[in-house]
Amino acid sequence: MEFGVRVSSLTQDKLLPKVVDNILNGNILALRLLGNAKKWSGVNLKKPVKYQKSTTGGSFAGLDPFDTSTSDTRKIPSFDLRAEYQSVTIPGIEKAVNATDSRVMDLVKVEIESAQEDMLDNLGDRFYGDGTGNANKDFLGLGAIVDDSTDVDVFGGITRSVDTWWKAIRTASGGTLSLTKMATLTSDCAGGSSLRQRPTMFVCDETVWDLYESLLSATVRANYEAYGYPVVTRTSRGAMRQSQALKGTAGFAALTFRGIPVVADEKADVETLFALNENYLDWYGCKSPDLTSISLGAGQIDGIYADVPSKNHGFGWTGFKVPTNQFGEVGQIILLGNLLTFQPRRHGKLTGITGV
Q: What is the C-alpha to C-alpha distance for residues 153 and 158, in angstroms, rounded to an integer?
């Protein structure tokens, strides 16, 4: 109902003290990686990896001589530190007006929190990229990690077309998704029946997620409707448990395949299903002594980042700086680190999925 001047001249509008996010979308992969962050150390991050067996062994009889030659079985991939920023700009006049008795929400707090969310959203895009954006300054992502040299040949200083053991599993789906193709992808990424060596999560966009759900039997779909979808959290890794299927559990709704959660991420590549082993996929963050460490968490904005990791390695705040020729203040949120794997063969993807 629209009121006339008789009412509107005597009654103020009510501004509710919460900003509602209507633009940022799902970002499951980034939140899980940041929720399990590790600390960066050194100029470049390196770790020895074994790429072949020693040849100095075998059967013998009597006084047969042993092979005592040395055998080179390791290489050392190397990854560089990369950085991302998000600016926060507060005009002095706006801050002054907001500081009057009519303030409903704190302008500075809302702007800082909004910048944090925008940065997390950008990270979601980076984590699906190949690291070549902005002259190779972007963080590495699944585009580089889950590849077989088709798009990214040199990864961590090792050439995949030469050292084929450094390839991830990349399989064209032929246009369709099937349980058989998912089973083959899972087996190709796994190391036998070892739980640690098999995928811990399938990730895809909502279209592919819907296609997978259509492959499930009517009984399984009815079970989901009765008991709710299983749930993955920001930090848990590994096979799903039935206890996680209770309604009301906080986290991300999932389907399952062989006990492995299948989740929809709106940042994920289209027509693609990723099989990831999170035991070998880590965000390494670097803390700067010149920045104030910050914890991310929503208080002013109601959206998908209302529950984000509270402790993240690598996030820092420059503090506000006052320009010499402007009335205002500017600060930056800085993130230092990179997304790495030292076991690409434990990750895989199906590409070109358009139907079932």
A: 8
Structure tokens at 75: 């290489």
- Strands 348-351 and 169-172, sheet pairing: parallel
Backbone φ and ψ of 22, nearest 5°: -115, 15
* Tens digits of residue pLDDT in 86-137: 999 999 999 998 888 877 788 888 888 888 888 888 999 999 999 999 999 9
**Res 14 pLDDT > 80:** no
* Calpha distance 296→216 (Å, rounded): 37
Report CA-CA distances (Å) from 208 to 35, 146, 176, 351, 354: 25, 18, 10, 11, 8
Q: Where are the beta strands (DSSP E) in 200-281?
A: 201-204, 231-232, 252-253, 255-257, 260-264, 273-276
Q: CB-side exposure of 273: number of CA atoms within 13 Å?
A: 32
- Secondary structure of residue 204 in the 3-state scheme: strand
Residues 6+ apart with CB under 8 A from 165: 51, 52, 345
| Residue 303: per-residue pLDDT | 52
Whole-angstrom distance, CA of residue 202 vs CA of residue 276: 6
Quickly count: other Cβ atoms within 10 Å of residue 188's Cβ: 16
pLDDT tens digits, 202-245:
999 999 999 999 999 887 777 777 677 777 776 666 544 444 44
Q: Which CATH class is domain 28-43+79-285+337-351?
A: alpha beta
Q: What are phi and psi of 72, to 5 degrees?
A: -85, 115
Q: Are 265 and 203 in contact (CB under 8 A)?
A: yes
